[in-house]
From TrEMBL, chain A:
It comes from Mandrillus leucophaeus (Drill). Pfam families: CBF. GO terms for biological process: ribosome biogenesis. This is Nucleolar complex associated 4 homolog. Belongs to the CBF/MAK21 family. Coiled coil: none annotated. InterPro entries: CCAAT-binding_factor, Noc4. GO terms for cellular component: Noc4p-Nop14p complex; nucleoplasm; small-subunit processome.
From TrEMBL, chain B:
InterPro entries: Nop14. Involved in nucleolar processing of pre-18S ribosomal RNA. Has a role in the nuclear export of 40S pre-ribosomal subunit to the cytoplasm. The keyword Nucleus applies. This is NOP14 nucleolar protein. It comes from Mandrillus leucophaeus (Drill). The gene is NOP14. It holds the Pfam family Nop14.
Amino acid sequence: SEDQEEIQEAVRTCSRLFGALLERGELFVGQLPSEEMVMTGSRGAARKYKVWMRHRYHSCGNRLGELLGHPSFQVKELALSALMKFVQLEGAHPLEKSKWEGNYLFPRELFKLVVGGLLSPEEDQSLLLSQFREYLDYDDTRYHTMQAAVEAVARVTGQHPEVPPAFWNNTFTLLSAVSLPRQEPTVSSFYVKRTELWDTWKVAHLKEHRKAFQTMWLSFLKHKLPLSLYKKVLLITHDAILPQLAQPTLMIDFLTRACDLGGALSLLALNGLFILIHKHNLEYPDFYRKLYGLLDPSVFHVKYRARFFHLADLFLSSSHLPAYLVAAFAKRLARLALTAPPEALLMVLPFICNLLRRHPACRVLVHRPHGPELDADPYDPGEKDPAQSRALESSLWELQALQRHYHPEVSKAASVINQALSVPEVSIAPLLELTAYEIFERDLKKKGSEPVPLEFIPAQGLLGRPGELCAQHFTLS
Amino acid sequence: MGKAKKVGARRKTSGAPAGARGGPAKANSNPFEVKVNRQKFQILGRKTRHDVGLPGVSRARALRKRTQTLLKEYKERDKSNVFRDKRFGEYNSSMSPEEKMMKRFALEQQRHHEKKSIYNLNEDEELTHYGQSLADIEKHNDIVDSDSDAEDRGALSAELTAAHFGGGGGLLHEKTQQEDEEQGKAKSRKELIEELIAKSKQEKRERQAQREDALELTEKLDQDWKEIQTLLSHKTPKSENRDKKEKPKAERLRRMLGKDEDENVKKPKHISADDLNDGFVLDKDDRRLLSYKDGKMNVEEDGQEEQSKEASDPESNEEEGDSSGREDTEESDSPDSHSDLESNVESEEENEKPAKEQRQTPGRGPTSGKGRAGKAAGDELPYTFAAPESYEELRSLLLGRSMEEQLLVVERIQKCNHPSLAEGNKAKLEKLFGFLLEYVGDLATDDPPDLRVIDKLVVHLYNLCQMFPESASDAVKFVLRDAMHEMEEMIETKGRATLPGLDVLIYLKITRLLFPTSDFWHPVVTPALVCLSQLLTKCPVLSLQDVVKGLFVCCLFLEYVALSQRFIPELINFLLGILYIATPNKASQGSTLVHPFRALGKNSELLVVSDREDVATWQQSSLSLRWASGLRAPTSTEANHIRLSCLAVGLALLKHCVPMYGSLPSFHAIMGPLRALLTDHLADCSHPQELQELCQSTLTEMESQKQLCRPLTCEKSKPVPLKLFTPRLVSNSQPQVIHPPWPPNYRCEPQHPAKKVIFVKVVML
C-alpha cells in the first residue's frame, strides 16, 4: 500500500496481533519446517495452524524490516518499535527449544533484521539510530547489536565492491552510540525480561562485551573509510574507543594508517598512538619524527590549531626527551613563527619558552655565552629527521627577529628570552583558543595613561606625501 | 697734572660752551694751555682762524663725545633687552597721581586674587598693632625667645636674676669688686644697679642688632640666589624654539621604542658626564630618525616647518574671520572665498588645479554650463551652517553638490561652530568628525567612488582630529570595530571572509594620516594593525580586485611601520602569495605557501599573463584605487595590464622590504621562499623587461645582505636576594611552650646533675 496512514495502521495491527500470539504461545516453537510440507503433511490442524502462523509472523518480521527503509520517518519509527516489541516478547517466549537448562536464548535472527535495516547502505538513518540508542542501554541488546553489526558490515562489504558512504556513516553512528559501562555492573539490565540469571551467560560479563566491542570496531576500521569518517573516528578514539577495548594495541594498524594520511588526521592519529605508547607500552620509534613532520607553515592557519598545540604540548611534556629532539622542535616552531599571525604568535612564543624551561639542556638555544660567530644558521629546515637537523648548534634568532614584530604584545613575548628564563612555566591553555578578533577587542578596550598621541605632520591628501609608498604605487583616478 | 688739566678744561668748557670755536675769547686763559700756531708769513687780507689752539679743551671735548656716543654703544653692545616701564599710567599725564595710585592698588589686589591665592584665606588682611604688622612682631618675638632660650642660660641670665631679684649677693659682690679695682672708687648701690641695667640693655640691643644683621644677610642671600636662579632659567628659553620642533619627534621616538612610562619615571634620565645640557642629545637622535629615507626626510622637514607655520596661520585667520565674518558677509561671498579654503589645503601643487579651474570658470561663462551652475550654486550657499545633529543631516547638506561646494560647506560648518564662539560648539564639532568619517565611508562605497572629495576632506578630518583627539580616536575606533565585527561574523558563518570594500581600506589609510603609527602601543593604531593583519591572513584572494586591494593593504602596512621598521610576517606571506600566483603552477612548489593562498586550484594562476602581445604593450603605471572597487569589467588586454602592474607593485614592495628587514637576525630564513620564487621568475622569461630588471635587482640586493649569526646570550640578571621572613607576632596570644621529648642522641650526664638541659621551643604563630 502507498498510503502512509494505512501502513501505520497495518503495522500497529500486526504488532498487536503477533504480540498477543507470542504471549499466548500460539506460534510454533522449534526448527521451522517449510510451509508446503506442513500443509500437505498429516499432522494435526493445531500444529498446522501454529506453523502457518509462525510463517506469517516470519514474513511480517521481514516486511517490518523492509519498512525500516521507508521514506517516512513515522513509519520507520513505528516499524522499529514494533520489531523491538517482538524482540522483547520473543525473548521472553522463545521460539526455539532450550537445549539445556539455563540455555541463553535470544531472537538473534529477528534482531539481525533490525540491525540490518538500521545499517542501510542506501540512506541516512541517523534519526532512527538516535531512536535506537535507548535500546543500547540494555546489556543484552547492546551485546547482540555489536555482534549483529559485525555480520552486517561483513555482509555489505562482501556484497558491494564499492561501499556507499551512507552505510559507513550509519555504521559509525551506531558504533559510536555503543558505550560500555566503565566497570562490571552489579545488576545487569536486560531488555528481555529474565526470570533467573545464569553465570554462564556471556551477556552478563563485561569482558565478553569488551571482546565484542573490539571485534566490532576492528572489523569496521579494517576497511578503507572515507576521509571525513577517519576524522570522526579519530576524534573519539582516545576517550571512547581505546579505553574500552580488550586489547588496545590492536588499534595500531588503523592508527599508523591514519598517521600517513597527513594534516589534521595525522595529528589525531598521533594522539591515539601517544595513548598507546604512554599507557600500553607500545613501541613506536617514529612517533616524534612524524610529529616533527607535521609542523609546517599552515599549522598556524588551520582550524584545529588549538587542538594541535594542546596535543603537541602534551607530547612534549615529558622531561625525559632527548635534548636534540626538543631543540629541533623549538627551532622548527621558531622558524614557522616567522610566518604566523599575531594570535598564533602569542601562543607559540610561550610554547617555545616552556620547552626551554622544561629542558635546561636546550637553553643553549638562547644563551650560548662563548659560542663562535657563524656565517649561516647551521639548522637545516629541510631535514626530516630531528636528530639530523643540527638544531642544538643553532640559536633562536627567529625570536630575536620577532622582537621587532609590529604588535606590542608579541614583541614583549619574544623579548622574554633576553633575560634568563623564569622557572615556572607559562600555562598556554588560555592562549590556545585566542583569535585575532579577541586581540583586537582587547587592544580597543585598553586605555592609555596619556592622551591619545596625534600625528604632527599635517595631512595633505588621502595618499599622503609624494614620497610615501601609497602615493608611489596607487593613484586616485 | 693731566688730571688737573682736564678738570680745568672741563670747567672751562662748561662755563663757555662755544669757547672752543671762539678761540682766544677768554682773557684769563692759562697761557700754559694755549698753543700758538705761529705764522711764518703775514699775508695781508687773510684772516687767520687757527692761530691759537686749546689742545686740552679739544681733547676733553672729544673724550666727552666718545663717552656719550661710542662708550654707550660699547656698553650696550650685546644687549637687546629694553627696560620698559610697565607701571600703570606712569606716562599718562591726564591722570592725577591719586588716581594712579588707586588704580595700581586695585590692579595689585586683583593680581593677588588670581588663581594662586584662591585657597589662601585672609592672606591679604594684615593685622597691625601700633602701625606694625602683627605678623612681623610675632616672628620677631619668636626668634628672640628661641635665641634667649638657647644662649641666655649662661652668665647673663645670672646677672639678670641678680639685678631683678636682688639675690645672689656673692655674684654682685664679685662684680662690684672688679669694678672697684678698675675704677678705683666706690659707687652707690643705686648707681651700680643702674649701670647694670644699662649694661644689660646695651647687650640686649647689641644682640638684637646682630640678629637683624644675620636676618638681613640671609635675606640678601636669598635674593641673590633668586637672581641667579632667574639667570639660570633664562637660559632655557634660548633652546625653546628648537624644542618646539624637536619635541614631537622625540616624543614619537620615545613612544616608538615602547619604553614603559613607569620605567621612565623610575629611572632618572641618563646624562652623560660630557653633556653640556644644551640639547645636543636630541639633535643626535633626530639625525638617526631622519636617516631612514636616504635624506628624503631632510627635505620634507623644511617643508614641514613651513607647513606647520602655515597650518597655524589659517587658524588665526579663521579666528579673525570669525570675529569679523558676520558683518562683512558680502565681502567673503565673492570668488575670493575660495582663497582661504586653499590656504587650508596647504600644498601648492595640489592647489594649482582647482584654483585654475575656478579662475577659468567665470571667463568661460556660457560655454561650460556645468561650471556655471556650480558657480551659481556657490553664490547661493548660505554663509552660516548649523552643525549637523545627525549623519543624515550632514549627508543632505553635502549630497548633490560639487566638490568645491562640499568642501566649502564643511569648512563653513567648522567656522560657524568654532568652540571659541559658543559653549556647546565643542560637542557639535566632535560629532561632526564622526559624521564626516561616515560620509567618507559612504563616498568610498559609491560606484564609482568619489575619491577626489575624500582626498580633500582628509585635511578637514586632520584638523578636527587635532582639535579633539579623544572623540576622534573614539570615532575611528568605532568604524574599525564595525569592519572587524563584520569580518568576524563572516568568518564564523562561512569559515573565511572576503576582503572588505574600499571604505574600510580608506578608514585604515585615514588612521595612518591622523595618528602616529610608529608608536609601540597606540590606542587606535594597534587595533588597526591587527585589522590589517586580519585582512592579509583571513581573506582569500579570489579575483584581480582582491589582488589590488591586498596590495593596497600591504602598502598601508608598510607605511604604518615605515618609521618603526617593525617586522610583519603576514606581509611577507602575502607578497610570497602574489609572486606565486604570478607563476605557472609547478608540482614541487607550494609547501611554504600559507593560508590565504592555495598551492593548487582555481586562483593559483591568477596573475599569470600568457598573452605575448599584452606583455609587449604593457607600460608601468601605478594602480588605481578605482580598480579595487570594481568599477567595470576590464577587457582582457586591460586585465592583463593590471596583472602586470600588480606584479610590478608586489615586486616593488618586496624590494622596499629587503633593506628594511636586512638587519633582522634571521633575514635569510624569512626571505628564503621568496628568493626561490624570484629565481623562478627570472628563469621564466615571459615577463616584460622592467619586471625582469626589478626581479634581478631585488634578488641581488637580497643576496648582498650580509649576516653574521652571533649566538644569543641572555642578559645577566641580578642575583635574587634571599627572602627574609619576619615572624608574624600576635600580641594577645599566650606563648605556647612545648617541651619536646628528649632527642634520641641525648645522653644524660650523671657527673653534672645540676646542669639541666631543657629544650624549649617557643612557637609564635
